Amino acid sequence: MAVSGAEAGVGAGVGVGAGVGAGVVVGEGIGDGVAGDGVGEAAGGAVSAVDALLARARSELVRLDPREAAELQKAGGLLVDIRYAELRERDGTIPGALIVERNELEWRLDPTGEHRAPEATHHDLPVVVICNEGYASSLAAVSLRQLGLHRATDLTGGFQAWRAAALPVETGAE
Length: 174
Hints:
Layout: E1 3-4, H1 5-8, H2 49-59, E2 62-63, H3 66-74, E3 78-81, H4 85-91, E4 98-99, H5 105-109, E5 127-130, H6 136-146, E6 152-154, H7 158-164
Parallel strand pairs: 1-2, 3-4, 3-5, 5-6
């Protein structure tokens, strides 16, 4: 069962279980309508395959709430925004967050890769992946863990939860 960062210590991590798919992306806003909770039911009451995948992924993560993510960033952790450009343009960005499109995430965050971002310095780096509502980021964080970034996790509720918590957001108008 997943625990909050407060219960496990901000930035603490656990290993990734076998069988969790890497690189699978769930569209923003998919689920039962509750941002960040993740497991909905398909027609007939059965859990869909993608919701089962999401539940398995989340069972391996110590997910952070927005305030925990902000504290981790202040302590040197890396926030990684994987939202589409259109969403960043519409809603703004988190100051200091690294912007990496989801389709480039593994290449940019692999500390041993030739295409890595300068911020991807080592496997012990605390990384918080942020999508729009906290679905795609869970799968992305597990993918990073499979690359050896054992402290990778995601933001419960995504960018929308960050904004709702009244944490800093930069917009193009600023």
